[in-house]
């Protein structure tokens, strides 16, 4: 895809509300809409396809989520390498095109196999947008402002989940997929006026080796830093992929006095994420520390996971959804986590890391769900979730606490 070259001064002069920030924000909005839509329409879509037993809906739902997340693992590597080799813009728009077409096709499925393979293709497409957008914004804003830029991207983006809930409820699951695909295709029209990162253009002119994914594994300290970046994001997907996606099952296990739906659980969780992403970005700027902001949110997340699993027995649905909202707020550090990953590495590997890190974190659901299912038998649904939550949160806290601070770091360098 043809893109325009940025002038050399662009990284120093782009404003918080430039075309780059707006397109990245809207791209993430559509990305989240499509990413979370399956969790919202899981039960209704599977019921219409002839799957009605509760256990079958749960197990096939987890299978389809794993297919989507498996696609994101593959797409994370593909788009990350392309982002460093071909440019951030080519990935930003190429990924939007792929997941938009896949989601339109998803509205026509009639079998589980069709559903599964299209979720895989959609996952590949969904893997590219956030990393490319965050990298582009981080490289195009002055270092003192880039935290605010990624905060705007996240705050606008996660609200896409609320639109997905409203559309899914108002228009049905098939139309919800059509609308999501249409939104993505419409977004491509905004590519006019968006420039490539000046840092990337300089690296390309200097013919620096770029996008070598394997180089992350050939240097011990670099590999350890990369793994730490991945592990910080796992608790968010434990919360969304297990606790919130399976909200109806947890509601029954906790004896909630009324019906709990996954759609409303997702809606309220992502409503909390809107405020959490704004708050985490703002706090990291005010404290001038990414690390302390992430530590704060991980501690808050651990507290709310405990409330969700052990403080809601016999609660009303209203109380249950309130906890989902607050739990969402505590895991509202997604864009901050991706920003930290981008800030830890040089220009020639930045898109690779910023794209693979969130997708490997999302892809952790592929490991979390079979572990969760395996432990449900001996531990029960609450005990299984507790074990996974404790491990993922402790590892994430250790990872962030041992990374170097990256607030205000100059990003114009190579690995």
Automatic annotation (TrEMBL):
Entry-linked CDD domains: MFS_SV2_like
Spans traversing the lipid bilayer: 16-40, 60-82, 89-109, 115-136, 148-168, 174-195, 229-248, 260-279, 291-312, 318-342, 379-400
All residue ranges annotated as the Major facilitator superfamily (MFS) profile domain in the record: 20-407
Keyword Membrane attached: yes
InterPro entries: MFS, MFS_dom, MFS_trans_sf
Entry keywords, A to Z: Membrane, Transmembrane, Transmembrane helix
GO cellular component terms attached to this protein's record: plasma membrane
UniProt name for this protein: MFS transporter
Originating organism: Hymenobacter jejuensis
Keyword set includes NAD: no
Molecular function via GO: carboxylic acid transmembrane transporter activity
Locations listed in the record: Membrane
Membrane-topology descriptor: Multi-pass membrane protein
Top-level taxon: Bacteria
């Amino acid at each position: 895809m043809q893109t325009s070259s940025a002038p050399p001064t662009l990284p120093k002069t782009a404003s918080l509300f430039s075309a780059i920030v707006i397109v990245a924000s809207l791209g993430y909005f559509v990305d989240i809409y499509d990413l979370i839509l399956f969790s919202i329409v899981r039960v209704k879509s599977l019921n219409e396809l002839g799957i009605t037993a509760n256990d079958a809906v749960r197990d096939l739902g987890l299978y389809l989520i794993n297919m989507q997340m498996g696609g994101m693992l593959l797409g994370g590597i593909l788009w990350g390498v392309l982002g460093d080799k071909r440019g951030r813009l080519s990935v930003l728009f190429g990924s939007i095109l792929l997941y938009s077409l896949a989601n339109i096709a998803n509205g026509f499925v009639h079998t589980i196999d069709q559903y599964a393979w299209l979720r895989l293709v959609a996952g590949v497409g969904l893997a590219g947008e956030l990393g490319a957008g965050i990298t582009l914004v981080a490289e195009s804003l002055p270092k003192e402002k880039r935290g605010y830029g990624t905060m705007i991207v996240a705050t606008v983006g996660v609200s896409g989940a609320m639109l997905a809930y409203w559309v899914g409820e108002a228009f049905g699951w098939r139309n919800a997929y059509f609308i999501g695909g249409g939104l993505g295709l419409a977004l491509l029209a905004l590519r006019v006026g968006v420039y490539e990162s000046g840092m990337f253009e300089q690296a390309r002119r200097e013919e620096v080796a770029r996008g070598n994914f394997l180089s992350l594994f050939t240097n011990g300290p670099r590999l350890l830093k990369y793994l730490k970046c991945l592990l910080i994001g796992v608790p968010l997907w434990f919360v969304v992929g297990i606790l919130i996606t399976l909200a109806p099952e947890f509601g029954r296990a906790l004896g909630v006095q009324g019906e709990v739906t996954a759609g409303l659980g997702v809606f309220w969780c992502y409503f909390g994420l809107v405020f959490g992403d704004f708050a985490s970005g703002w706090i990291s700027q005010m404290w001038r520390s990414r690390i302390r902001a992430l530590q704060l949110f991980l501690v808050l997340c651990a507290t709310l996971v405990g409330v969700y699993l052990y403080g809601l027995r016999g609660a009303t649905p209203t109380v249950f959804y309130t906890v989902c909202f607050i739990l969402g707020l505590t895991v509202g550090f997604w864009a901050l986590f991706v920003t930290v990953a981008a800030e830890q590495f040089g220009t020639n590997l930045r898109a690779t890391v910023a794209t693979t890190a969130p997708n490997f974190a999302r892809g952790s659901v592929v490991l979390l769900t079979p572990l969760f299912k395996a432990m449900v038998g001996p531990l029960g649904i609450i005990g299984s979730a507790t074990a996974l939550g404790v491990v993922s949160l402790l590892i994430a806290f250790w990872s962030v606490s041992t990374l170097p601070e990256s607030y205000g770091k100059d990003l114009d360098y190579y690995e």
